[in-house]
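Table S2 (text version). Query chain:
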Amino acid sequence: MRTPALRKGVVALLASASLLLSACSSGDGPAAGGRASSSAGAASAPPASASPSADLPPAKGSVKVVKTLTEGLASPWGLAALPGGDLLVSSRDEATITRIDGESGKKTLLGSVPGVAPEGEGGLLGLAVAPTYGADHLVYAYFTTESDNRIVRLQYDEKKPAGQQLGAPDTILRGIPKGAVHNGGRIAFGPDRMLYAGTGETGDTGLAQDTSSPAGKILRMTPDGEPVHGNPEADSLVYSYGHRNVQGLAWDGRKQLWAAEFGQNTWDELNRIEPGRNYGWPDVEGRKGESGFVDPVAQWKTSEASPSGIAYVQGSIWMAGLGGERLWRIPLSGKADGEPLAAPQAFLEGKYGRLRTVLAAGGDMLWLVTSNTDGRGSPTSGDDRILLLKVR
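Corresponding structure-token output:
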């Protein structure tokens, strides 16, 4: 119930901050729903600074759709795994959280999240399960209200009747600017057990470079919503800035943070995130090589990506594409500069429509959530769905 100070000064980078979190297809499966292709053309690991090992992913990968876990989801957005393998999925427009049995796909409504005001790209967005879930049963959610975007935590009591299993939301962060577009919304707990949030600049491009604003940033906070010791500025949640609309967060085997981000008209981006660095928006979009800004590790034409969620599985970053209607694989080389091992590779092009969220499912398995009922897709029978993929 507070608005933490997000004061200016991140531009004056602390040298020590850059070390913080660095130490922080032929195999396409069968198409479901009869959708035709629309395309033309954590085990322990060495630190991020380690040399690439022989244990690298192949240059070319593969994807096989193992099964459709569940269907009939309305505007699904966030996805989080519970201990034991069941999933929680949020509905952006209905403001509900549903539990999905990880084996049968059976759906159980937990309840509605009060205060959500769906509009445009806003609503009930990202979900995260607390690292301490076994003791406290806390679920975190990022959502849009009538006045702002905020992060709350709710206690989940599965012993209560379906639809009444969520406790009252406890707000840990309020005052993230909202807009009809670019609300960000992805949240995730990192290897350091801190909570990270990707935000958007709401269409007000200047906010991305304003280090006193939480908009157009990646934020890092304690589970209580407080600034973390070691952040670039001691009293600020801002971890990196100059972002347009961060939609995906994931850590690789070396505990290096990666983020996917919407471009405007030219380049969508995958960025390797370092604390306190400036990722350029709105001054640059894509790779420009300009001093003071970090170039993306990979970039795509906006028609090929419009990236949303990302996950790290089998040595690669997997990135869901909305407008591009495909799943991208970016094999990592382990090099200190983040240079990929090979060019990104696309799978499932047009087969399932818009792709919103991916989540590691253990070993070589990946959960994939479609997004055709969000008002911008073309739903077919069964949409939206969660698929289980086998990847390499």
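Notes on Table S2: Helices lie at 133-136. The chain has one helix and 24 strands.
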